Amino acid sequence: IVKASLADGTPLGTVLLATVSHAMVHSVLGTQIKYPLSGSGTQNDPYLIKNKDNFDMLLSTLARDKNSHGYGLYFKQTANFEAPAVSNVIDGRLYAGFEFAGHYDGDNHSITLLYQGGGEDKDNQVGLFPKLLDNAMVENLTITSIVYGVKNCGGVLAAESSGHVAINNVH
Questions:
Q1: Region for 62 from its dihedrals, namely left if φ exceeds 0, alpha if ψ lies in -120 to 50, beta otherwise
Q2: Within 13 Å of residue 28, how many CA atoms lie on the same side as its CB?
Q3: Could you say which DSSP state residue 90 is in?
Q4: Which contacts (CB < 8 Å, 24+ apart) does range 90-98 have?
Q5: Dihedral, CA atoms, 88, 94, 98, 99, nearest 10 degrees?
Q6: Which of 20, 29, 82, 113 is most buried (most C-beta within 10 Å)?
Q7: 149, 117 in Cβ contact below 8 A?
Q8: Cβ(15)–Cβ(1) below 8 Å
Q9: Is 59 within 8 Å of 50 (Cβ atoms)?
Q10: 110-149: per-residue pLDDT in tens?
Q11: What is the DSSP letter of 113?
Q12: CB 115 within 8 A of CB 86
């Protein structure tokens, strides 16, 4: 197992399962994305989203998690906060999330979502999670939003969903 980290020891969150022969990587057997948050991501010990920075960490890890999109993982919000601005400031976007297939429990907290678009082609699939994938669940969350300038397919929680998605007690 090879764990990637920065020079200061901060984990990058990616684990490679590899075979090594004569100090050279012989083959990569698979990768597993690790979410650098408190908790273990299980139902009994969910990853904790304590603030805007933790939510940003969730989003940046989802951006790298192109295969599972958080499938089978549990996340629990523990405070109210504003969703971070994660898109490129140069293009004028204030927020852009990522596809999600995990379980997000807002624990009766709120999150504020701000999105200002220009109605351009790239202003599509806008939402807290632009797309909820099969087996995603979002519950116990209040979303306050200011969303405008969406050209096509926008929503407060999600722009679209696919497969079996559960949404409970979301306002």
A1: alpha
A2: 8
A3: G
A4: 91/122, 92/116, 92/117, 92/118, 93/117, 93/122, 93/123, 95/126, 96/126, 96/130, 97/59, 97/62, 97/127, 97/128, 97/129, 97/130, 98/59, 98/62, 98/63, 98/69, 98/129, 98/130
A5: -140
A6: 113
A7: yes
A8: yes
A9: no
A10: 998 876 666 666 666 667 888 899 999 999 999 988 666 6
A11: E
A12: no
Q: Which helix (H) or strand (E) holds 64?
A: helix 52-64
**What pLDDT digit, counting tens, does each position of 156-165 carry?**
788 789 999 9
* Residue recorded with tokens 């075979």: 19
DSSP letters for 27-59: EEEEEEE---SSS-SSSSSPEEE-SHHHHHHHH
CA angle 107, 13, 45 (to 5 degrees): 30
Tokens in use for 144? 């306050």
